[in-house]
C-alpha cells in the first residue's frame, strides 16, 4: 500500500471564504510530507478535516486504502491519526502523565493506573528520544517540552499518521534542531508525518515531498530534494520572492527617542529586568535590539510604551520627558507599538477589524465628534489600512477579528500602527510566525518608514531579521546593554556571542 492517507478534492467553505477549494493531498507510508502555504491558505482547515474537527463539504478521504468518514477526533484516533495543534491543549496544573491519559477510556473493568501509565510514558519518551519527564507539572516545563508531551500523547494512543501544525513557530533554534531529530526518529520507527509549515528552510531539512496550497487552492506537490526554495516560495505566494531587503544608504538625523540609565523591575521580587540601560534612536534609523528571549527586552519595551513603571532613569521623546506619561499620552506624543503578543495586547478578537483599526484613536476627530461616533469615517479609515496592508478577511472591515489568520491579524496591527504616523515605531517580533510573503511585505514597510525619517526600534529573536533590517544593533543580556554595533561592520557570529554576554573586545 503506497498511500496511508489520501484526501481527494476536499472542499470546505466558511462564511465569505472558501478555505479549501478541491484540495488533494496524498501521504505515502514512511514519508515526511510538508504542507506549505501562506497564512490563511487553508492548511489548518485541511488538517482539521483529516482529524475530524471539521467535516468537508465535499471530497473523499481514504486511510490505508479504505474510504472513511471521520466524523470526530475519536474516529481519527481509531484510524491511527494524531495531531499536534498550533496551540497546545494541555491542562497546566496537571502532570505530564495526567495530561497524556486525559480523555482515554479505561479498558473494560480496569481503571487507569497512573504508575503504569507513567512507566509507559517513560518508555515511549526513551524510544523516540523525547526527553519528557512523566511527573513534571505542565506549568513548570518549557514550551519545547509541552510540545513533546503533545507528541507523546499521540504515540501513547498508537497513532502512526502524525500531523504537526506549525510546530516550530514556538520553538528556539536549538529546540527546532531537536524536533527535526525527533521527526526523523519517528519515521525510522514506521510513522508517517504531515508537517504544516511556511518555513522553507525546515522543509528542506526534513521533508521528502511538499504539497503547496495558495488561497485555498491546490497548486502542486513536489519532490523536496529536486526543488529549490525559490521555486517553492513562488508556488506558495504566486510571484517571485526576493529573499533580501533593499535598504538604501541613509544618514540618520537627530535623536528622536532617548533612553538614559533606565532601570525596570521584573515581575520576580527583588530582581531587576533592565539595568541602567541607555541608547538613542535617530530620525531615519532602525535600531535593532538583539538578545535571547527573556533577557529584559519585554520590560524595556513596556517601560518605553508606558505599560510598566520605571524604577530610575529617563525616557525622552523629541526632547520632552515622557517617563511618567500614561500609555495614551505617549501614543498621542508620537509612539506607536506593534506588540509582542498580538492576541493579548494588539487586538480585541471579538471586535470587527474596523473597530480594531481605530481602537487607540476613536475618540479623535473625525472618528468621534462631541461624543458621537462617525461610523463612515471609521470605515473609510479602516478600509484604507486593509487595502494598503493587504489584510485578507472574508467580510473586509466587518469581519470579526478572531476569524482572520494570524498573518492577517499581524498585517492589520502593523498597518494600524504605521497609519498612526508616529515619530517612533516600536516593532516587537513583527514577523513572528509569518510566511515569507508576509515577512517580505512587513520588512519593506519598516524600511519605508525608516526612509521616511521615522525612528524604529526593532525587537526580534530572529537574528537574520535584526541583521538585515537594522542600521545599528543594541545587544541586551540579563537586562544590561552589552554594546551597540553598526550593522554594516558586524556579523551573526559577533552579535550571537554578545547575546551570551561577551562584550566586544573581551578576550577569553
Ligand atoms: N472556523 C472558521 N470560521 C470562519 N473562517 C475560518 C474558520 N477557520 C478558518 N477560517 C478561514 O479560512 C481560511 C483558512 O484558514 P486556515 O485553514 O486557518 O489557514 P492556515 O492554517 O493556512 O493559516 C482563512 O481565511 C480563515 O480566516
Ligand atoms: Mg494554521
From TrEMBL:
Subcellular compartments: Cell membrane
ABC transporter domain span: 5-240, 257-503
Highest taxon, organism lineage: Bacteria
Predominant location category: membrane
Keywords carried by this UniProt record: ATP-binding, Cell membrane, Membrane, Nucleotide-binding, Repeat, Translocase, Transport
Molecular-function GO terms, alphabetical: ATP binding; ATP hydrolysis activity
Entry annotated with the keyword Transport: yes
CDD domains assigned to the protein according to its UniProt record, in alphabetical order: ABC_Carb_Monos_I (cd03216), ABC_Carb_Monos_II (cd03215)
Protein topology in the membrane: Peripheral membrane protein
Protein name per the record: ABC transporter ATP-binding protein
Amino acid at each position: 500500500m503506497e498511500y496511508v492517507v489520501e484526501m481527494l478534492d476536499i472542499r470546505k467553505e466558511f462564511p465569505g471564504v472558501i478555505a479549501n477549494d478541491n484540495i488533494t493531498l496524498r501521504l505515502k507510508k514512511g514519508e515526511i510530507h510538508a504542507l506549505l502555504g501562506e497564512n490563511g491558505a487553508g492548511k489548518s482547515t485541511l488538517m482539521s478535516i483529516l482529524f475530524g474537527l471539521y467535516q468537508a463539504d465535499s471530497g473523499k478521504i481514504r486511510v490505508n486504502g479504505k474510504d472513511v468518514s471521520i466524523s470526530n477526533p475519536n474516529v481519527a484516533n481509531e484510524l491511527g491519526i494524531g495531531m499536534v495543534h498550533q496551540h497546545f491543549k494541555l491542562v497546566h496544573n496537571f502532570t505530564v502523565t495526567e495530561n497524556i491519559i486525559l480523555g482515554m477510556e479505561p479498558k473494560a473493568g480496569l481503571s487507569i493506573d497512573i504508575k503504569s501509565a507513567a512507566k509507559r510514558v517513560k518508555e515511549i519518551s526513551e524510544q523516540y528520544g523525547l526527553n519528557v519527564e512523566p511527573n513534571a507539572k505542565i506549568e513548570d516545563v518549557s514550551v519545547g517540552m509541552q510540545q513533546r508531551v503533545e507528541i507523546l500523547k499521540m504515540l501513547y494512543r498508537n497513532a502512526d499518521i502524525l500531523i504537526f501544525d506549525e510546530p516550530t513557530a514556538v520553538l528556539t533554534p536549538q529546540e527546532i534542531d531537536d524536533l527535526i531529530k525527533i521527526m526523523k526518529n519517528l519515521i525510522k520507527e514506521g510513522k508517517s508525518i504531515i508537517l504544516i509549515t511556511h518555513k522553507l528552510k525546515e522543509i528542506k531539512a526534513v521533508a521528502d515531498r511538499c504539497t503547496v496550497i495558495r488561497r485555498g487552492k491546490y497548486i502542486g506537490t513536489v519532490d523536496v530534494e529536486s526543488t529549490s526554495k525559490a521555486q517553492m516560495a513562488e508556488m506558495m505566494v504566486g510571484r517571485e520572492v526576493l529573499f533580501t531587503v533593499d535598504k538604501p544608504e541613509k544618514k540618520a538625523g537627530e535623536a528622536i527617542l532617548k533612553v538614559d540609565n533606565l532601570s525596570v523591575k521584573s515581575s520576580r521580587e527583588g530582581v531587576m529586568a533592565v539595568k541602567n540601560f541607555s541608547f538613542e534612536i535617530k530620525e531615519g534609523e532602525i535600531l535593532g535590539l538583539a538578545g535571547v528571549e527573556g533577557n529584559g527586552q519585554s520590560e524595556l519595551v513596556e517601560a518605553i510604551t508606558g505599560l510598566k513603571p520605571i524604577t530610575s532613569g529617563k525616557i525622552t521623546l523629541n526632547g520632552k520627558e515622557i517617563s511618567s506619561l500614561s500609555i495614551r499620552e505617549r501614543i498621542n506624543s508620537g509612539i506607536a507599538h506593534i506588540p509582542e503578543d498580538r492576541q493579548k495586547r494588539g487586538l480585541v478578537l471579538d471586535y470587527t477589524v474596523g473597530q480594531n483599526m481605530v481602537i487607540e484613536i476613536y475618540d479623535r476627530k473625525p472618528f468621534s465628534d462631541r461624543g458621537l461616533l462617525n461610523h463612515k469615517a471609521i470605515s473609510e479609515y479602516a478600509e484604507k489600512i486593509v487595502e494598503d496592508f493587504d489584510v485578507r478577511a472574508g467580510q473586509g472591515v466587518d469581519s470579526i477579528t478572531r476569524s482572520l489568520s494570524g498573518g492577517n491579524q499581524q498585517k492589520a496591527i502593523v498597518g494600524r500602527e504605521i497609519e498612526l504616523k508616529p515619530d517612533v515605531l516600536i516593532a516587537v517580533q513583527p514577523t513572528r510566525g509569518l510566511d515569507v510573503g508576509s515577512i517580505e511585505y512587513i520588512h519593506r514597510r519598516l524600511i519605508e518608514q525608516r526612509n521616511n525619517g521615522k525612528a524604529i526600534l526593532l525587537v526580534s529573536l530572529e537574528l537574520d531579521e535584526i541583521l538585515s533590517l537594522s542600521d545599528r544593533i543594541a545587544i541586551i543580556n540579563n537586562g544590561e546593554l552589552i554594546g551597540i554595533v553598526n550593522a554594516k561592520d558586524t556579523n551573526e557570529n559577533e552579535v550571537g556571542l554578545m547575546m551570551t554576554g561577551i562584550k566586544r573586545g573581551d578576550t577569553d
